[in-house]
Every structure is written in C-alpha cells, then in structure tokens.
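Budget justification aside, the reviewers requested a transparent look at the raw inputs and outputs of the sequence design task funded under Objective 1. We therefore reproduce one unedited record. The lines immediately below are the structure tokens for a 718-residue chain.
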C-alpha cells in the first residue's frame, strides 16, 4: 500500500544588513520578547505578540557562556563589522497537522540539535501556532541560527560551507533531507500512514506542477478577499493538479479493470469477442468524449466544421480534412461494437500527428454569434474580460500558458462582415494580453478539447504532446455583447462609405518634382517617425503607411503633398511594392482621405478643427463611450500621441533657437494665413497644445494605459 503524501516545507534564507535585517530584531519578533541592541541602541519589544507556542535555544558544548538570547544575538551583531554583513540565518519548517503538540516539539528539538552538531552554531527555535486568519493546520517553527561557529571564547569563524556558491545548495539540501527524515519518524510514532518527501515533484517522478510562495503581502490581500497575480497562478496550478490527479485515479481504475479482464481471459479461455462484450458491460470513462461534448455544448451551434490538419508530407505541406457533424453525430455508436466511430477516427488521426480543430459550420455564411480570441497569455485577461462584460462562453487551454476564448456576443447568427469586424475589435482591445490579430476572422478555427496539440514547440520534457484542456463551457451570451456589435456595425458601415468614396475619387499622380519645402519636411517626418508608428501599430507596413497618411492629412496637408512624402519617405517602399509603387501610393492616400471624410461625417474624428468645433457647439456629438469601449481606436490614440510629441519638439526647438535663426516649419502643422517662418510665436497655441496633452493623459488613464506627462511640462489647469 502506497503511503499518503503529506505537506512539506523547509526553506533556508539569510538575514543581512544590506536588506535592513537585524539579528536582535528577528530574534525578538520570533520569540515575542524584548531585546536591546547594544550596537544600535534600539530596543525591539514584541512582548505583546500572540501566536507563540514555545521557545528554546540550543548551543554546542562550548557555548556555556550563553545565558539568554539577548546575549546571544548581541554577540552575533557585535561580531560583524561590515555594513552589508549577514548576521543570522533562518530555517522555516512546517509540521504535518497529524502530529501532536509533543511530536511537534520533539521534531523541532531534533532538527535544532542536529544543526548544532553539524555546523557548530547556536540555534534559537520558536514554535508558532497557525495564524488566526489563515489555515488552522499551519503549525510551524522558526529556527534562527548564527552565521559563525560557537567557541568557548565567543563566536568564532564563519560557517563558509553555507555561504559558498558551490557547497551552499548542497548543505541546504542536507538540511531539507534531515527534516524529512525527522518528520517521517514522528509520523510513524503517531501511527499515521502519511509520509513527506523533501524532493521536488520532478525528482519524485510525479506529473504535478509546483505552486509558488505567496509571501506576506499577497497572503494578506488574499485573506481580505483581494485576488492577486500570485494567487491566480496558484489557483491555476491547483486546478491543473486536480485534473491530473483525477486523470491518474481514472487511469488506475482502468488499469485494474484491464488486468481483471486479462486474468479472466487466461483462466476461462474465452474468445476475443466475448472479452470485448465483458468489457462493454462496465465501460471505462472516455475523457476525450466528455471534453468534446462539453465544449460543443458550450458553443451551442447546430452543426460544426471539424478540421483535421494532417502532419506535413514529404514536401512540407499540410492538408486539412473537413467533416461537418452535429454533436449528436459525434457521439453516435456503431450497433455492432458500441464504439463511437467518428470520435475513434479523430483519435486515430490525432495519434498519427494531426491537429484537431473546430468551428461552427460556416457554409450558411454566419457564425452563430461566436467570436474566437486566440493566443491569450497569462491569467489577467480573463478578469479583464469579465470586467468588460465579455465573459467567455468557452475557454480552452491549448498549451502551457496559452488559451483560446470563444465569446458569444449574440444569440443570433452574425453576417460575415460584422463578425469579422467584431473579431478585429476584440483582438485590438486585448492585444496586450496576447490576442492574435491574424486570427481575427469570422470563420477562424479553434482547437477541440480532449486531443493533443501536435505543434513541435509545445513538446513536454517527457517527450509527450500536451492535451488541449477544457476550462470553461458556460455557453452564456456576454453582457456587453450588444454594445460591441453596435460598434462593429458602425465600423462596417464606415468601411462601405469609405469604399464608395474611394471608388469615386480621382486618381492621385505623384509629382516627379518636389512640390514644396513643406513636402520635404513631411518626408523627413515620415523617416523620423516610422519606427514609432510601427511600434504602436504592429508589423503591417501598409497599415503604418495608412495611419501616417491620416496623421499628415489631419494637420492640413494636401493629398499631393502626402503622396509625394509617402512615395519618397516610406520605409523600403521600392522593395515592398516593386513594380506598382505609384499605384500603391495612389490607393493608400485616397483610402486615408476617404476614411477621414467618413469619420468626420459621423462626428468621430474630433482631432480635425471643424469636428472639434462642432462637438463644442453640441453638433455632431459623438456617442458617449462607456468603460468597455475606451479602447475602440488605438490607432487614433497613437496618432494623437505622436502629434503631441511633435508639438513639444517644436516648442523645445524654438526655445533653444531664440536669438538665432528661426526653426523651419515642422511637417505636422497647418499654416493659416502665412508660412510659419513669417509668424511670431503664438503663446495661445502653446497653451492649447498643453491642454491637449492633459486631455490625452486623462483618456489614457481611463483606458488602463500608462502615459505620464513629460518632465519639462508644468501642471496647468485646462
């Protein structure tokens, strides 16, 4: 019979002056006593502290001169001269709750005596009760011991064996091993079957994930009902371990049943069909079937497109096999064998290296109101989705630290254009959590739970592929799904209007000669700010060109000027668009202009002076945004941020050049009556830009981003 595994903890850490530590303060706090520090003149008084079960200190035979802990730890402080010296070490050990008070005392006593004999140090032990707000099984002890050996004359040489990088870890391992031995002896004396092991789960050969230590701050927050990142990690680890334990138990049951069937076959000499019938009388649990049926139930579609992506052939190509099945068809059994044939076929393909995917059947031209967010990383994204009213209907873990979420934004089916735009909005909104914009499509596949992820980069240390796990499958419609759809439909309508305007606009011919000094300045601005736009918008160079054209147009530049600056200022354009550079410039500029006109008609482009004035007068007022819509236009925010930086750069250049020749006009400003070189500096314009800066900072804070005011920008009331 295998012994049950008990809770084990034994950690060793130094206490040093470099981190503000003090041996006298540490001893007083752990023992609940009053100790005066002769070196600093401070008195550490913790006599009113509760939760201390008992205290005792142990010394080698040469330490007869030590009368109490005040003398001991003052000697430890006096022995060290350096400001960053280590003045003590501490071992924190926990007791299994099966041990009695006497066994807890004897265990701590045994470890302290062993440490004095092993290292020749003095050990001060404090046994503590569990915290009244914590786990009431958490009986533990603090063993504070000196960093120097105890001699008859006082504290002697340093215990370098614990300090050395080479020998230190090995000695800590010895302490942990000794503590495990002591605890197992105490558990045996108590008649308990529980045993502890000091080795890691990996060294024990267990497929269990280790948790992380919360620490004092995170523990306090968790006890007060505040979820922390560390707590989320531990909860996720615990959920994974629960699944692993459940699967292991089910595997043990299956192995026992298989052994019984094999035994009956040997004894009764029955034929294979009869053996199969005997197995069918008590069918084992099919974890894949349970995961698949639950995921399909959560997705709630009438019919599904099951994609089987076969492993690469000799040319490196992968073929996709598609099957259109309902959830009932997947669970159908063959009358002659009782086997779920379709599910068995998927399992066999998965074992051969194929990846198994699923999506609602797209042949009807809709997606049943489901939107997929792919490649979500970490744990914070789920809480953010819930705060935004977009709680997922289905969540699958595709690999360690990577998840997919299906959001039900409507109970009704969506047309392809609206669904695709909704997917793009979600991918842009949650890009900071790893959401993949390349997967933002109305008919994108997601992984089907219960099968392994066959990608090579996800191979585990044991050489196996990870299973796709089903984490959530409530199937409910998101609370803010209707608002998200409204935003997506506005975007779709704007796209149609822009395309109509684009088709009717005249073609733009890029001038062969330089149109003006302003065009040269705008080209230089393109070259200087390309990397900034690309960092904000992603790796799509055409998208960067589009938004840089819009930024220039907002400042009043003509289409021909923008086209010339794009033609000769865009990054690596000749290589990217070889053979059709002028056509690309024509399409990009006309599209940027068409989009701006549509946004101004809808009252959404308030960065334009006319639109801003109409908003101030109450005309063309844009719809009010609630908390969940604050990230709808990250591109416009990037443009605003770069515009503000240009204003600040202009102001700094002017201040540096006072008394000298005036700086040339920057490319992003629209001259009004005369060229900027001929106009004096207008202080009102500077104040206006500062107001814009304050306004942008307010908007960024509302969106959860961090946009601080420049150091040289003073606080001003708007």
């Amino acid at each position: 019979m295998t012994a049950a595994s008990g809770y084990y903890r034994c950690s060793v850490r130094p206490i040093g002056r470099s981190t503000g530590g003090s041996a006298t303060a540490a001893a007083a706090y752990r023992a609940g006593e009053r100790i005066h520090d002769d070196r600093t003149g401070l008195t550490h008084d913790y006599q009113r502290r509760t939760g201390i079960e008992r205290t005792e200190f142990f010394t080698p035979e040469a330490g007869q001169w030590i009368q109490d802990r005040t003398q001991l730890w003052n000697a430890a402080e006096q022995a060290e001269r350096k400001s960053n010296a280590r003045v003590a070490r501490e071992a924190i050990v926990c007791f299994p709750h099966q041990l009695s008070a006497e066994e807890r005392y004897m265990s701590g006593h045994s470890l302290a005596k062993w440490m004095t004999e092993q290292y020749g140090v003095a050990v001060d032990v404090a046994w503590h009760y569990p915290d009244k707000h914590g786990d009431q099984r958490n009986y533990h002890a603090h063993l504070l011991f000196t960093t120097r050996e105890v001699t008859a004359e006082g504290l002697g040489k340093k215990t370098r064996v614990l300090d050395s990088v080479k020998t230190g870890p090995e000695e800590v391992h010895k302490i942990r091993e000794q503590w495990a031995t002591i605890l197992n002896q105490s558990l045996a004396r108590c008649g308990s079957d529980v045993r502890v092991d000091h080795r890691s789960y990996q060294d024990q050969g267990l497929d269990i994930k280790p948790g992380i230590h919360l620490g004092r701050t995170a523990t306090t927050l968790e006890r007060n009902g505040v979820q922390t990142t560390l707590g989320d990690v531990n909860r996720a680890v615990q959920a994974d371990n629960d699944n692993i334990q459940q699967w292991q138990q089910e595997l043990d049951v299956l192995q026992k049943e298989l052994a019984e069937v094999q035994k009956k076959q040997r004894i009764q000499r029955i034929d294979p069909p009869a053996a199969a019938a005997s197995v069918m009388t008590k069918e084992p649990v099919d974890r894949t079937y349970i995961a698949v049926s639950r995921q399909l139930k959560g997705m709630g579609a009438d019919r599904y497109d099951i994609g089987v992506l076969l492993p690469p052939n000799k040319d490196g190509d992968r073929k996709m096999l598609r099957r259109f099945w309902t959830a009932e068809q997947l669970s159908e059994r063959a009358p002659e064998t009782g086997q779920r044939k379709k599910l068995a076929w998927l399992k066999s393909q998965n074992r051969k290296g194929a990846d198994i995917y699923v999506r609602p059947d797209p042949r009807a031209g809709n997606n049943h109101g489901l939107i997929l967010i792919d490649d979500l990383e970490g744990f914070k994204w789920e809480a953010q989705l819930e705060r935004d009213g977009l709680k997922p209907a289905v969540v699958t873990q595709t690999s360690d630290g990577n998840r997919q979420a299906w959001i039900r934004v409507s109970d009704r089916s969506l047309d392809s254009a609206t669904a695709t735009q909704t997917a793009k909005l979600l991918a842009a909104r949650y890009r900071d959590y790893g959401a993949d914009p390349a997967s933002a499509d109305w008919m994108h596949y997601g992984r089907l739970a219960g099968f392994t992820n066959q990608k090579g980069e996800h191979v585990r240390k044991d050489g196996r592929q990870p299973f796709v796990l089903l984490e959530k499958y409530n199937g409910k419609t998101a609370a803010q799904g209707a608002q998200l759809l409204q935003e997506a439909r506005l975007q779709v309508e704007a796209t149609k209007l822009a395309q109509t305007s684009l088709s009717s606009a005249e073609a733009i011919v890029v001038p062969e000669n330089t149109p003006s000094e302003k065009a040269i300045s705008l080209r230089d601005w393109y070259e200087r700010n390309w990397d900034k736009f690309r960092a904000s918008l992603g790796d799509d160079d055409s998208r960067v060109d589009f938004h840089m054209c819009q930024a220039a147009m907002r400042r009043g530049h003509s289409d021909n000027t923008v086209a010339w600056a794009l033609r000769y200022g865009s990054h690596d354009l000749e290589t990217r668009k070889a053979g059709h550079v002028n056509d690309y410039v024509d399409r990009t500029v006309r599209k940027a202009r068409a989009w701006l006109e549509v946004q101004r008609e809808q009252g959404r482009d308030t960065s334009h002076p006319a639109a801003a004035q109409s908003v101030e007068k109450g005309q063309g007022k844009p719809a009010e945004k609630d908390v969940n819509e604050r990230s709808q236009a990250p591109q416009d925010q990037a443009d605003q941020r770069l515009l503000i930086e240009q204003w600040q750069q202009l102001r700094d250049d002017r201040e540096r050049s006072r008394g000298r020749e005036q700086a040339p006009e920057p490319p992003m400003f629209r001259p009004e009556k005369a060229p900027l070189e001929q106009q004096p500096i207008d202080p009102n314009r500077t104040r206006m830009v500062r107001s814009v800066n304050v306004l942008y900072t307010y908007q960024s804070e509302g969106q959860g981003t961090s946009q601080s005011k420049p150091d040289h920008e003073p606080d001003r009331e708007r």
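The two ends are 76 Å apart (CA to CA). Residues 274-281, 606-638, 659-718 have pLDDT under 50 and may be disordered. Computational costs for records of this kind are itemized in the attached budget.
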